[in-house]
């Protein structure tokens, strides 16, 4: 049930029997040869497939996040943390005001993590709500599937290279990049991050066979669906 395919009356009717919804969070940032919207596309898709058939509304993915280190790469857009937290506050409070009490956040971007830390503050102000923050790509089952496939997996590497994140006519390099020193990278300003990182892949292959990616994706969807169905804390 994609919100974009519903009108207000349909949502009102849904709320008579359903207090769950899904809010995907993405980002617009460099992903080497992949789409700048990779994080947004992946969060939106895993959310939609996980909720399929459950009658739970899935809201449009938020396409901007916190990614200041990549702003030297053209096309990357970053929000300030203060802006991002205020935006999350407005979104969650708006959903709560309409009657949603169980909200699954499907997050697709690691830089959005300040929101996860802040969430307890929002819950303290909304004690009747339950919110799950789900980093879909490194949740236990999904990350285990990634590691079983190839231990060298990172930002903008093969682990984010799905048919729906690739760009037509753009070939992926064949090289297996050594892993960058992430701790050192975090100390650098954007221009030096780009200089040190090159195309944007942190390390590893740029692409693996689609049959392997499909196994990982199926695990990610199943893990997300399990949270939507049975991951809610009870009083």
TrEMBL record:
Cofactor: Zn(2+)
Top-rank taxon, per record: Bacteria
UniProt keyword annotation of Cell inner membrane present: no
Keywords of the record: Hydrolase, Metal-binding, Zinc
Pfam families named in the record: Creatininase (PF02633)
Coiled-coil parts of chain: none
Family: Belongs to the creatininase superfamily.
Protein name: Creatininase
Source organism: Deinococcus knuensis
Lineage: Bacteria, Thermotogati, Deinococcota, Deinococci, Deinococcales
């Amino acid at each position: 049930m994609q919100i974009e395919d519903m009108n207000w009356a349909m949502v009102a009717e849904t709320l008579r029997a359903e207090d769950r919804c899904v809010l995907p969070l993405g980002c617009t940032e460099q992903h080497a040869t992949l789409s700048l919207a990779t994080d947004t596309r992946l969060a939106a898709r895993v959310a939609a497939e996980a909720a399929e058939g459950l009658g739970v509304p899935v809201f449009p993915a938020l396409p901007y996040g916190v990614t200041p280190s990549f702003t030297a790469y053209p096309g990357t857009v970053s929000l300030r943390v203060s802006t991002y937290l205020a935006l999350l506050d407005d979104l969650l409070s708006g959903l709560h005001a309409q009657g949603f009490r169980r909200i699954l956040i499907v997050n697709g971007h690691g830089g959005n993590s300040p929101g996860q830390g802040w969430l307890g503050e929002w819950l303290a102000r909304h004690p009747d709500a339950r919110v799950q923050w789900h980093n879909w790509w490194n949740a236990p089952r999904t990350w285990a599937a990634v590691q079983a496939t190839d231990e060298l997996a990172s930002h903008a590497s093969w682990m984010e290279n799905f048919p729906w994140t690739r760009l037509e006519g753009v070939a992926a390099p064949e090289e297996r990049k050594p892993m960058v020193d992430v701790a050192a990278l975090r100390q650098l300003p954007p221009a030096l991050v780009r200089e040190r990182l090159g195309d944007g892949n942190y390390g590893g292959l740029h692409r693996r066979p689609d049959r392997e990616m499909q196994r990982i994706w199926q695990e990610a969807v199943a893990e997300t669906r399990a949270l939507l169905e049975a991951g809610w804390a009870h009083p």
